[in-house]
Every structure is written in structure tokens, then in C-alpha cells.
Amino acid sequence: MSEHNQDIDKLFQKHYASSDAGGFTEAGWAAFEQGLPVSQGVGLLGSTTKKVVAVLLFLILSAGSGWHFGRNQSAPNAESIASQENTPNSNVIDETATNGLETTAANLTADSKTTAAQSHSTNSVNQVPSSDNRSPQLPEEALALAAVTTDLSESANNTPVTTSKKLIPTSAAGASSNSLTAENEQSTSDQSSADNVAISPSKNSETSRKKAVYPELPTEKAAQKTGTSRSLRLADKQAYLPLYPAFATRTPTLQTRTIAPLRPIPVFHFKPLFQFHLVAGLSVSNTYSNTREAKDPYSLGPIGGLGLDYHFAPHWSVSAEAVYLRRGGHSLKQSSTETSQYFYTESKTTRVVTRSLDYVHVPLNLNWKLGARHSFTGGLFGAYLVNTSSDISELNVSPATKSKDDLGSSRGYKGAVKHFTYGATMGYEFKIVPALAIGARYNLGLNDVSNDKYVPTSNRDKIRDFQLFTRIEIFSH
Amino acid sequence: MKYSPLSINFTHQLRKLTAGLLLVTMVFLAGCADKELPEPTIEPPTLFVSGFLEGHPIDLQVNQGMAEAWAIPVNYQSGIPSWEFNIISNDSVSKLWGPQEMLIVVHNYLPSLSDSLLGLENTILPGTLDYSFIEDFDSFSTVKIIYSDAQGGFYFSELVDGQGGSFFEIQEVREVEMNGRIYREALISFECRMLNVATGKIAKLTSGQGIVSFGGVSSR
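^ inputs. structure came back:
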């Protein structure tokens, strides 16, 4: 059995022995209760060590509370007064709150706790109502500065809002705590004569009126500092309802916290992109010949086409193009002889000399972008011969005549060269503006273009051309 | 990131672009019809005459400019409508003495003077022709052969009386139109005796055969 229980047993035995042992009486029980040591009834503070800890904790809390209020209050020496009653009408208001015309229930509750703790530590248990006259006399410090109310009727009429402050004993606070009722409001407003502090309506009368009619809940910051909830207790709310109908439609018990939408962080997100572009420019290419005619070593021809880019990475893309390309300056001869031998031999020789070759190049390139303006390309191309331009002549031989006729130019004789060739390509592009770029490209064929049927082996050659072009992006997706 | 101000409606732009590309491609391909030069032609001789004259071969054929042939439409030789086929060698050696040449003449003794083409159809027919020269127009037709060799020999079949054992047969006939004229091409086989006018000797032409052509009349 613990020491505490042993003491209780001894007390019981003592009182039982001193009484007349006639049984239980109310007077006897009350006397018994008066004789109980205060500290014996609390288990947590039963030992001496725990007492010391409790005192230290109290001091720390008191210091912390003072520090908090010191930050919030414009008057550092102001003290809060709490009523000893835990009734719904408990309405001791902090002076700081009255300065801002914010009679907050949170501060009210916090201050009540603080004062209750002080009372508990100094005057033992004091939870009985004051009307019982059993509460011990409070020391002089327990007199508090009570902040009293706002004249609602006057504030509603945009009259100057007044606050009054006066020293009242805590025992009288219970009576004054009913100041929110109509009667007390009237009495309070009547008493506000000497030390009333007037707030000028010219500053913000509208705000003052609204705040007077609809007192707001304590701010989130204040609630955190005081450790209280922003929401009024249900009992408090019910007590306020007659005067503040707005509480009937607001003040949810569960407070929601509005979080401001996050401002988008400017992070670069790459999105694959298709782009169409046009290509136009000039090509300098080598020439082919299988005749004795003098030919130019290089020729100049136009190029033009359409392409598609697919940007699959921030600096990488693949592209495909269909580019029309004319290569001129060639001298590729084909000939054929027809003979007629019915009555006599008659021959007709057709001679075709191809001068220009029209290709469709389809390069497939891998592009690497260096910075915002420079791009390097490389890949393969396939070239298909779609048309040619040739000079046509006929040589007619018969026993009586021999003649040569020039028939002008004609297109479509593609027998002198192979129809399909392929090769490698590489190039560079410089972006002038976002949709316009210039570039250069070199194409090197990997197979012979000459057709073995018409062109001697010694004249075999491969595609070699250098292109300068302008690239225009037409749209993207 | 869209650079171009034209990138308003991707789908709309893509449809327009596709339609334009198809149109351009069709026009482009329509103008790109592939043309090929004709292959060099070397045809076998169409017209020829071959045989042996006293053991010496005769080979005249229109081939690579070595010989030429002519068809004379209507030759009123001696007042008789005739169809002639003449084949001449262009060999330079033979030209020292004169061209090697053979002439085949077919007479029509029942000509239709008003319709030369009808006379051709009635004359050049599969059958056998007679070498005899007929004065009285009793026969329907006859044939004569004139030959000149490379050494200057000149031979006539019509100057030999009694062509016993000789024949001239038209085995097949087909009609050919060239340059607006109608020819009848005949596959012939013949043998005959010929008189050399320079020496007065008769030479025998054997194993004669060939493809000859008569006519040259205007088409209908």
C-alpha cells in the first residue's frame, strides 16, 4: 500500500474515532473534506520530486506565455484576467483584443487556462462556482484589467465605437461576464464615461461596424501561438447566437485551411515535336560524259523540296526530305539503228545525248543541335532518277541518200544512267530566325550511276554534289 | 514550341499539304514517262534469189546494203503488160564487169488495162508459168529470166527454144503494202536453160529459189 493510501486510512481512522460513530452525516463529510490535504488528491504530483517538476513546468509555461503575449501585445504589462467559472458566458477579454476590436474566444480560453493554473497552484482546488462563496479570497494581483464590450447599437449606427476598461475584482467578474447580454451592454455603455477610449469613425468606420457586428475568429497565427482552436466551442456559440446571428450560418466546427495554389515552377519539359519545312537552294554537282564532246567539270542546278523533322530529344532530331534536284552539264550518248531490207537496205540511227538528270533525293538525317542556332546533320540518301533532258538526232542512210536530222530536245530517255543510286550525306545549318535557316550539305554517292549498257566502264562515276539551301519551317505539331 | 505563325491548325494544314503533294506528284510523274531507244535491228533478208548456173552459185539477197531490189509495177514490154522483179548486187568486185543482176519478168496476156491492181491479182498467183514466148496470146501468161554474172556473162532464158524439163512455180503468195503501194510477194522455185549471148552457149540454171516481189501499184 502506498504512502498516500496509508495517510488516507489514518485520516479515516482518526475522524471515525473522533466522531460519534453515529453514521454518515453531511456536516461530518464536509469537515472531512476540509481536512483533506490538497496535494494528496493528485496522483501525478504526489511525490516531492514531482512537485518540483510541476513548479518548474509551471514557471516555464508562465514564462513562455508571457513571451508570447509580449510579442502580440502592444502593452507588455497588460495582464489577462480569467473568470473562475467554466460557464458558457465566461467572457473575460484581453485588453489586446479590445485594442483591435477583436474579442476572441481563443484568447479568452487561453487566459482562462492561465489564470486557472495560477489559482490552482496557489489556492488549491477552486472549481466550485463563485456563487457558493467557497472560493478563497484572491490576492490583490488577481484583480485584473477587464476589457469590456462594444456598444453594438452605436456601432451599428456608425457611432463612435467605445471601449471601457476598469478594474474589477474577479469575484465580480462573474457578474460582469454577463456584459454581453443586453442589460450589461447597456450598463457598460452607460458606465463608459471617464476612461473611455474613443476610436474615430473617420478612420475606418465601415470596418469597425462590420467587425463590431460580426466578430471574427482569431487568426491562424494567433491560434497557433495560444495553442487554442480557432473554432468556438458549441456552448459558446449557442450563447452568442442571440447577439450574433451570423454564427448560425458560419463558423464550421471543422476548420479548413486554404492552401494557395502553387505557382508553376519554370521547369523545362521537353515535348516531342513534328515540324514540316521547305527547302530551296542550289546544287553544284559533277558531270558525266561518254562522248568526245567537251563538258564542264561541274554544273549548277536548282533544288527544292519538302521535309519532316521529328524532335525526339532536346538536342536531337531525325529528318526525312523529298528534294527535287537537277544535275546538268552531262554528255551521255545512246544510239540505236533501225534497218529496212525489203527492196534495199535502209538504216535509221537515232542518237540521244542526255544533258541533264532530274533526281528526287530522299535523305534520312540525324540532326544534332548545338545551342540555339547551329545544327549538324548526317545520314544516308537515296536518289531516284525521275526524268532526263536529252538532245535527239536521226541519221538516215539509204543507197540513194544519206542525211542527218536534228530533232531538238526530248525528255524521258533514262537509259544512260541507273535509275536508283544511294550515298551518304552530311551538312550544317545555321538558324537565322526561329523559322528560317540556311545550310550546306555534301552528298557522296556510293555506287556508279553509269549504265553499263551505254556508258563505257572508264567513264563510270558517282554522285558528288554540294548544296546550299534555305530552310523554312512551315508548321509544327 | 511552335515557331511559325502558320502553325494554326495542324490538321487543316496537313490536309492541304497532302493534297498539294499528291497533285504535284501526279503532274510530275505524268511528265516522267520513260522513253527507251529501240533496240538495234538486224533482220534476215526478205528478198533473195539463189541457184546454180553451170555449177556456179548465184546468191543475191537484200542484206546490209549488198544488194537492192526493185519492183516495176507495169511494164508494157512489147505491148504486153508485165510485172518485173530486179535484184542487183552492190558488190564492188562485181562492178568491175558490171553488177550481178537477175531480172524476172511475168507477162500478163489477158490484162485488165483499166485496173492494174486487178491485173496483179490475176497474174501473180500460186501455180506454174511457162517460159515460152507466145506471140499469139494463146496462153494466159509466161515468164522470162535474165541474168548477168560478175564476169560480164549475159544470159537470156527467152532465147532458148524448147525448155523441156524447165519449170517456174509460184508456191506461196502474200500481199505486202509499203509506202502506199501494193506488192505481191511470192515464194518461187525454178529451173531453166539460158543462152549466153556473148558465147552462144546454153547454160543450165538449176536449184533456183527465192522470194521475189511484184507489183508496186497504188493501193485502193
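The CA atoms of residues 160 and 203 of chain A lie 11 Å apart. Residues 48-72 of chain A form the longest helix (25 residues).
thumbs up if we can close this ticket
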